Amino acid sequence: MKDFILRRQVVLYLVFYFLIILYLLTFPTTVSWFLFYAFTLLLIISYASSSHRLVVRDVSWHVNEANGIIFKVKLSSKRALPLFLSSLKLTLYKEDRRTQHHQTAFFNKYVTVTFQPILLKRGRHESLSLDIEGMSLFGLWVKRATHSIPVDIDIYPLVMRKSSRANLMKEIHPLLSHAHHSVLHDFYVKELRAFQNRDSLSDIDWKTSMRRNQWMVKEYEREEEAPIDLIFYGQASEQFEALLSLTYSLFMEWHAVIKDNVFIIGRFKYGIETRQGKQAFLTVQPAQDSKELHRCLNESLKPGRKPIIVTSKTHSLPVLRSPNQTYLILDDDYLHHFKTE
C-alpha cells in the first residue's frame, strides 16, 4: 500500500509539473518561469538524493538467552559520501522470520542500525537477507536494494532457565537414585566394626549395637558413578521441539559428566539415524518410520550404562533389547518446567 502511495505521489507531482509547463507556454510570465524552475530543481534534488548505491560496511551479531539474534549492521554509500536520503527502512529476514528497523539517514556518512532480536529456526544459518528501502527527499522516489549477509550462526534448542533446571533436577534425582546405576552416589556397607574414639556418634548403627550389646559402626564404601546415556527418541509429535529442548537442557546440565554420550535419534539429511554429540541438536528433524526408530534405539543401548530416554508419551517405546536394563523415561509430563518460566 505504501508503494502505491509513493507512486501516486510521483504521478501527481508529474501531472502538476506538466500543468506548470502548460501554464508557462500559455502565460510566459516571471511567476510562471519561477514556478517552472522551482519545481524542476525540486524534482532534480529529489531524484539525485535517491541515487546512492548503498553498501554494507560491517556486520556483527550475538545470540541472547532466548535464542534471539541481535544483529548490528553499518551502511554507507559506495563512495562513502554523505547520504541525502531522508530515511531508511531496513528488513532483516530468513524465510518467514523477519525484523524491521526505521532509521533517519539525511547527511549521515555512515548509518549504524541495531535490530530487535530475530528468532531464527533451530539449525545452522550461513546467510541472512537484508532489504533496504531508502526514501528520497520530499518522498518522491524509493531506492531499493537487497543484500545477502554471510553469517555463521548456530541456533540450538532453547535451554531452561537455571531455576527451572534446578527444579527439574530436584524432580528426577529421586528417580535416578532408585536405579542401580545413577549419577548419584550409592553407598554400600564395607565393614561392621566396634566403635572407636575417632568415630562420630552419628555413624553408630543403633539397631546392631542393641543386638550385640556394644556400640557398632557400619563403615561404607562408595560405588563409582555409573555412566549415563542421554537418548532423545525423535518420533514425530506436537511436542517434538519442546522435548528436544528438554533433552538439550539436561545435556547442558550434565555435559561435564556425560560429554558426548548423548544420542539423538531422528531424521537427518540421509535418513533416520543416530548421531552423537552437541552438533546433532542442530539438524535433527521428526521421523515417522517407527521401525527404523526402534532399530536405532536398540543400537544405542549399551550394557552397563544407565539410559535416560526423552520421548513423547503419545508413542509407546519398543521392547528394548535388554529388558533387564534399568532406564528412566522423561516425557511430556516434564515440560511443565518450561511453562513456569
Automatic annotation (TrEMBL):
The chain crosses the membrane at residues 10-27. The keyword Zinc does not apply. Residues 191-250 form the DUF58 domain. InterPro entries: DUF58 (IPR002881). Keywords: Membrane, Transmembrane, Transmembrane helix. Coiled coil: none annotated. This is DUF58 domain-containing protein. It comes from Alkalibacterium iburiense.
